[in-house]
Amino acid sequence: MLRKTLLAAGALFALNCGAAHAAVVIDNKMDWAVGYTGPFDAELDVVRFSAHYDSSASAFHLVGTLAGAINTATPGIYVIGANTGSGLNHPFAPQGAPDVKFNQVIVLQKNGTGAVSGHPLTSTIAGDTISVWVPLSFLPTTGAAPVNYSFNLWPRNGLGQISDFAPDNSMLSAVPEPATWATVIFGFALLGGVARSRRRSARAFARPA
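Request: output the structure for the sequence above.
Response:
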């Protein structure tokens, strides 16, 4: 059983180290942006946001999940700020998010259209989730490697007010932080130590008196 666990963990680690790099943030419900006055609709409350860079496709897959189904009949947009290295813009201190720094903006409409830097995009809305693939060529670097680009999702209501940030006051990298990898590696080492200890105990038990 332990051997199977180690093999599965190793396979997962190998997949994460391959062409696809992704990170996820879980955002608390009802954590509205500072100064937001409503409406407090579930479709304006982000609960999960992921940034995935696929080097084989040279594209980013960005996925936001809201607290409720997205109503395509009501006004509002979903904006994703992207930091490709320079992070020039950080205007959200009044909304309690001064560390949301970006230099590109991806705008996704509820009708499935979108755009970044004049390039058209097509998004997918399914229930409570909105997702989009953004080619790397639409987000040219300003100093960072693609796996080090970072993103933040903020919905805007029909009046243009920002309702939520995901992450709340930072940017989500397209690849997990070094601390995450350190935790994974430590876990592998711990499992390996347990396996060695069990083998030694089994050998000692099997020795004749």
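Residues 20-175 form a domain with the Immunoglobulin-like fold (CATH 2.60.40.1190).
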